[in-house]
Amino acid sequence: MLCAALLCKNAHKRGIKIKPYIKTSLSPGSRAVSRYYELSGLQEYLDAMGFYHVGYGCMTCIGNSGDIAKEVEDAVKEKDLCVASVLSGNRNFEGRVHPATKANFLASPPLVVAFAIAGTVNIDFEKEPMAIDSEGKEVYLRDLWPSRDEIRKIEETVIKPEIFVETYNKLANGTERWNSLKVKESVHFEWNKDSTYIHNPPFFQNVQKELLQWQPIKEAHILALFGDSITTDHISPAGNISLSSPAARFLKERGIEKKDFNTYGARRGNDLIMARGTFANIRIINKMMKGKVGPQTVHVPTGEVLDIFDAAQKYRSEGHQLIIIGGKEYGTGSSRDWAAKGPYLQGVRSVIAESFERIHRSNLVGMGILPLTFINGENASTHGLDGTEKVTINLDFENLKPSQDV
User: Fold this and answer.
1) Structural domain of residue 392, as residue ranges?
2) Looking at residue 335, what is its pLDDT?
3) CB 303 within 8 A of CB 388
4) Contact, 12 vs 49, CB < 8 A?
5) Spatial contact of 35 and 167, defined as CB atoms under 8 Å apart
6) How far apart (Å, rounded) are the C-alpha atoms in residues 288 and 157?
7) d(CA 103, CA 83)
8) Is residue 308 a part of any domain in this protein?
């Protein structure tokens, strides 16, 4: 983090500016970082290069660092550009940092600054200049990179144990706004039916002591036909709520403005939104859509193209069961709990894939969704499946064994 700030300082002193179409932001993982930036005087150079402090923790990697300039977003959409984000975080799934970004890269903090200055990811820092300074001279990354001694000198001066002790001792105290919240004391949580953030989920309503009986899967429709590497972020995105999505329609119908949509990640306490957000990643590819990218599918009985949630609702209202077809590595990634809860709420009874991520497979089982794998190197293509088929799964539920053929 110190190296990134010093890179900003060195660039600023040479009169280098970041191009206006590049979005920059700073969201440290800890308030201790803000404190040692303040003590070292480095925050002013981060500000000067556009890395303003926007919050803490999971801001950027979950899509909470804000919009990009409208002109830039419009150009990306109109030209169907493949634009990139570079993030010092732990998630780089499609569309998660921002819906307009197709390519997303993880890098160290100073490299994030370097790519921002360069204004492109198509650069070889060893051989190509990253900027032109105020004197018209070419500037390479090696010209701006701080020395180990430079970093160590600041580190020894400002990185003190007491900064971390002071910061973390305050964590349990909460903020003034948090502590001033008015709440009633009660044994059970008081559900507010009008809340768009927290809703009483259906998972434990009408629970009985008796074990649920297995309901056979007969003539189920294929809700979506996916290829390889469908991540849990494709299944249950955590980032921005797209204006054209079923979740956005739900919020707008309840008087919520776009500026207050927040993210799927922030609204995962509301099953009505999360069910609408399932398979809602704007970069998801459903092979039933013949090359069109996005969270839509074909309602086979009518041939109607619908958002996946709307199609699921239509199927269920007609009394049809649903399954998903996938490829290799189905369910890799994070946000795993809703990636299983969401399909359950949409009425998905089984997922048939070439292989599963282990934890996601367990979560599917926990929600009563049957995970099945194709055998002998087979897949949807070898069977000639195009998504219009109906699927019946013959399963002897009373005599199930691990790894058996079905």
Assistant:
1) 217-399
2) 66
3) no
4) yes
5) yes
6) 60
7) 6
8) yes
57 touches 33 (CB < 8 A): no
Angstrom distance (rounded) from CA 113 to CA 92: 17
**Within this chain, do residues 165 and 41 fall inside the same structural domain, yes or no?**
yes
Domain count, the chain: 2
Placement of tokens 């070898």 in the chain: 382
Residue 203 located in a structural domain: no
Sign of CA dihedral 213, 216, 220, 226: positive
Q: Do residues 299 and 235 both lie within one domain?
A: yes
Is residue 385 in a domain? yes
Mean pLDDT per 10-residue segment, the chain (406 residues): 97 96 93 93 96 88 82 91 91 80 92 97 97 96 96 94 89 87 89 93 82 86 96 89 92 94 91 96 93 95 97 97 97 86 96 96 93 94 96 87 85
Give the span between the Cα atoms of 241 and 22, in whole angstroms: 22
Q: Tell me, what DSSP letter sits at residue 375?
A: S
Q: 240 and 149 share a domain?
A: no
Measured CA to CA in angstroms, residue 146 lies from 9, 88, 153, 334, 392 at distances of: 10, 18, 11, 35, 64
Q: How high is the pLDDT of residue 64?
A: 79
Task: Please give the model's pTM, rounded to 2 decimal places.
Answer: 0.83
CATH number at residue 395: 3.20.19.10
H/E stretch holding 142 = helix 141-144
Residue type, 104: N
Reported as type and span, the H/E element at residue 31 is: helix 31-40
